[in-house]
Amino acid sequence: MDRSIHTLRLRSTHVLRITLLSCGILLQSCTDAPVDPIPVQPDMVPPHTFGWELVTTGTLLTGVWSHSDMFTFIVGKRGTILRFDGERLHPMESPTAMDLRAIWGGSGNRIFAVGERFIILQYDGVEWREVTRIPGNLGSYWDIFGLPGGSIYAVGDFGFICHYDGTRWSITDSVTSERLNGVWGSGESDIYAVGNSGTLLHKDGLGWREMESPSNGNFTDIWGTSWNNIYAADVHGNIFHFDGDTWEVDEQFPDEAFSKIWGTAADTIYAAGIYGSLLCYDGTEWHTLTSPVEVSLLDIHGSSPHNILAVGASGTVIHSSGYDWETVASGYTNDLYDVWAYDEDEVYAVGRLGTILFYDGESWQEMESGTHNSLYGIWGASWDDIYAVGTSGVLLHYNGGTWSIDGFQAEDHLYDVWGSSWRNVYAVGRNGVICHYDGIEWKQMDSPTSNDLNGVWIDPSGRVYAVGREGTILAYIDGSWITIPTGMSNTLEAIWGSRSNDIYAVGSVGVVFRFDGAAWNQVVSWTSTGLNGVHGISSNDIFAVGFSGTITHYNGARWKTMKSLTKQSLTGVWQNSKYDVFTVGRSGTILHYGPLSD
């Protein structure tokens, strides 16, 4: 919790235009981008982008395929191959310096990439190797697609279609000499390929044939969910739909041109294209998504609705988890200082002048608190046993129906409250005050410090910790409070841990201390912004919030700053589950991290 807030309370493109060539979809012939896929900038954070985050390498990237949120493979210019682990891009050793155009995989150790001079590479889970260059060196493959455990098709210049039957690659009969840019199928007797000049091919049990085309422009890609639900895009911004009988225009975007279509289900389909264009189809209509980039996106793929990536010019990689922070309109403007939740449909926030807000899963409502004292901390043992603390030592209790003021009053302001059960609750505050509730009554405890205590937490073993001003860390061991030296003067505002040997205390100027079960050590700071609250659900899923809308997340390996929708100071955070997090702050600010509504 933000101690400066207590003081206030108490003392008063660069735009890279990529030309979609008249002969296909790709770019200004892969201009002179750097070959080396380093440096990587994994922490670049764009403005609010409906869950999309930007990573960049500087190398032209043309294809992406994802096996899981930990294993995504990306290909690009001059043989570039990268693996994305959900946080960082890792260069892989490539057997070629030729441009790679597309990538597809059937599993994590059965992945194929195609490109310039009709090269085909395969990854076996250990290394990439070249497997063939059929038919020769005079053109390129532009797309690849396979059926799970079955046939694989690569399509490219001069209408070439290369087929892998599980044993060998061979050129199959084609009925066009136009360049083919996209391929997709629902089964062995239902494969489609699209290309220049409105070329639309279909392979059934009798072979390839040319279909009547709905476009006279260059098709850029094709993708579907079933034999009667297929989408294709062309360079004129048209998106076409096939219902198993007829191709028709589904939507038109005259100022756009989409290079790739991909989705996870009939009601979750994405299109990506020039100037960073992103569309999403929800089963009823196409929506334009805000993009973090203005350079052309050349491929899009993912492993689930919560792991989607698009790649393109200037080494652009954008990633979406399908979740993001959204502003919650509570209708209240009083500063909020802390938040606690019993579950996703029972969330409480407390704040200035006795404000208590309740969220029922749909809307926020104000509750009668019975006090005008500002409330700084809240914690509950259950839905009908909740405690709130605040100025002048006020202690409130909620029994599931009403809030009431406890007869006990601490000697000074209380800033935080936490417990392990209904009969073991601690509250801490100004001038080192510490209070304990044993299920029967509150009592004030002897404290070894006169420094303000801002946060309190109990580990699974029952040991209690409190943190505060001038780097104060206290531990309650064997019936006595002891001071743990930190050698630091920075104020600590909040504390939380996943277990007894994994505890974090955060504070001013971004200071973070971690207890590993043996000693408290200062963590190398990733921010200089003061942190006021910390909470999580495991050792690899922790959130910390602070001044100027700062939100950071720890994934078990590193802390990463998340994009925020506010510049208001955030003072409290509570995580219910991996994708259900609330944070509160100044001027009634409430943010929620969860499934995107747009």
What is the strand and helix layout of this fold?
Blueprint: H1 3-11, E1 52-56, E2 61-68, E3 71-76, E4 81-84, E5 89-91, E6 100-107, E7 110-115, E8 120-123, E9 128-132, E10 141-146, E11 152-156, E12 161-164, E13 169-172, E14 180-187, E15 190-195, E16 200-204, E17 207-210, E18 219-226, E19 229-234, E20 238-242, E21 247-252, E22 258-265, E23 268-273, E24 278-281, E25 286-288, E26 297-304, E27 307-312, E28 316-320, E29 323-327, E30 336-343, E31 346-351, E32 356-359, E33 364-367, E34 375-382, E35 385-390, E36 395-398, E37 403-405, E38 414-421, E39 424-429, E40 434-437, E41 442-444, E42 453-458, E43 464-468, E44 473-477, E45 480-483, E46 492-499, E47 502-507, E48 512-515, E49 520-522, E50 531-538, E51 541-546, E52 551-554, E53 559-562, E54 570-577, E55 580-585, E56 590-595
Antiparallel strand pairs: 1-28, 2-3, 3-4, 4-5, 6-7, 7-8, 8-9, 10-11, 11-12, 12-13, 14-15, 15-16, 16-17, 18-19, 19-20, 20-21, 22-23, 23-24, 24-25, 26-27, 27-28, 29-56, 30-31, 31-32, 32-33, 34-35, 35-36, 36-37, 38-39, 39-40, 40-41, 42-43, 43-44, 44-45, 46-47, 47-48, 48-49, 50-51, 51-52, 52-53, ...
